[in-house]
Amino acid sequence: MTSALIAENLTKRYGRRTALSGCTLDIPAGHVVGLVGPNGAGKSTLLQLACGLLEPTAGRLEVLGERPSSGSPRVGFVAQDTPVYGGLTVAEHLRMGAHLNPSWDRPLAERRIAQVGLDPTQKAGKLSGGQRAQLALTVAAAKRPDLLLLDEPVAALDPLARRTFLQSLMELAVEQGMSIVMSSHLVADLERVCDHLIVLVASRVRVAGDVEELLAGHHRLVGPRRDPGELNAGWTVVDESRTDVQSTLVVRSTAPIDDPSWQADRLDLEDIVLAYMSGAAGPARVLEGQR
């Protein structure tokens, strides 16, 4: 199996409202995948479909080679509000996890609780946001799933709690070799832990690929104003702006940018994400002008 998740024309509607429409993507197994996009792009809906909490209206969805089903031991899910039961202690959460999951890894759960400094006798309702997130991650990870889905798990955490949570996530990925998909608005955090990125805008995958390849293949070009037909063939224009005398382009190209009339700068991951979101009104254009 080379894919953790495959979606083809996946659609979810609630009456007249469409939460996800015609989404097609292939998420590789064995990676830590960042899922990023604006509010309303369909990220949460996609993750809830993947873990079987929602049924698609149309299209095909395959998770770990199977149709998604709620409660599958192969899939772990931490929802956006990192849900825990406020009236239960940390230890009671672990006992509940053991009761509900045949594959429960008790040593892993107890080791993680100790590592992150949680008091087993403390009720979850008295924990900080970061502590609740760590508890929710522990319960999901101790199922030993093949795929772990995280919906904005660090959105409400302070910078130190985010760093601690992400470090724990990386340790779990290395130790257990699971596939992880994490949605987030915090691109800098994704760049720290993810090796694969998906940008989802208006239910459409704008770009997907290994982070290193995306960083190497995208450039910001600044130069004299030119018409599209005068640009190099093979460049995929992601976003563009022009004045009367100057063109500024974000392009994707596998070849080096060797035209001396352009000032070429590399982009960080946030620059790339913002370019695809800004250029979302239309598809990226592959230029076919003369070199």
UniProtKB/TrEMBL annotation:
Record-given protein name: ABC-2 type transport system ATP-binding protein
Source species, domain of life: Bacteria
Occurrences of domain ABC transporter (ranges): 5-227
Q: Does this entry carry the keyword Metal-binding?
A: no
Which key words tag this protein in UniProt? ATP-binding, Nucleotide-binding, Transport
- Give GO MF terms, alphabetically: ATP binding; ATP hydrolysis activity
Lineage of source species: Bacteria, Bacillati, Actinomycetota, Actinomycetes, Micromonosporales
Question: CDD domains, from UniProt?
Answer: ABC_DR_subfamily_A
